[in-house]
Design brief:
mainly beta, Hypothetical upf0131 protein ytfp, 6-stranded antiparallel β-sheet, 3 helices, 6 strands, 14% helix
Length: 141
C-alpha cells in the first residue's frame, strides 16, 4: 500500500505534533496526481485541500510501512462511520512518480464544496506556495 501526501504531512513541511504522525512511514518519492490544490486559512496556520479534477498536484508517495493509518484518518478528519461526513475522505488515486513510474496510492481528498475563502494554488505545490507567500503552516493542536 502507498500513501500520497501533498501538504502538512510532507516531511519537509510537517511541524510539531504532525511530525509524530509520520513515524513508521516508508521511504518517499516525488510524485504528482490529478486535481486542484487550495490553501485553507486556519487560526493555527494554513493547510491544503486536494479537489479531484483538472490540473496536477505535487507531493510525495510513500510506502505505508508501519504508519498508523487510523491516527492519520483522525488527523485528517475522516469519519470512518460516514465517508460523506468528514472534512476529508481517503481514496485511492493514480500517481505518477518522478521518472515516470505509475502507482496507485491512498490520498486524502477534500470532502466539502470549494468556497471563496479557499485560496487557489495554481501550480499545485503547497511547499512552494508556503515559501512564496511566507504563510505559516498548520502544525496541529
Amino acid at each position: 500500500m502507498h500513501l500520497f501526501f501533498y501538504g502538512v504531512l510532507l516531511g519537509q513541511v510537517a511541524q510539531g505534533p504532525v511530525r509524530d504522525l509520520l513515524v513508521g512511514l516508508g521511504s518517499g518519492r516525488t510524485a504528482t496526481t490529478g486535481g486542484r490544490l487550495y490553501a485553507v486559512p486556519d487560526p493555527r496556520g494554513w493547510y491544503p485541500v486536494l479537489v479531484p479534477g483538472e490540473g496536477r498536484v505535487r507531493g510525495m508517495v510513500h510506502a505505508a510501512g508501519a504508519v498508523d493509518l487510523a491516527a492519520l484518518d483522525r488527523f485528517e478528519g475522516v469519519d470512518p462511520a460516514d465517508a460523506a461526513a468528514g472534512e476529508y475522505r481517503r481514496k485511492e488515486v493514480a500517481v505518477c512518480c518522478e521518472g515516470g513510474e505509475a502507482l496507485r496510492a491512498l490520498a486524502y481528498l477534500y470532502n466539502r464544496p470549494v468556497t471563496p475563502e479557499l485560496v487557489a494554488i495554481p501550480h499545485g505545490d503547497f511547499a512552494r506556495w508556503l515559501r512564496e507567500t511566507g504563510a505559516s503552516v498548520f502544525a496541529g493542536g
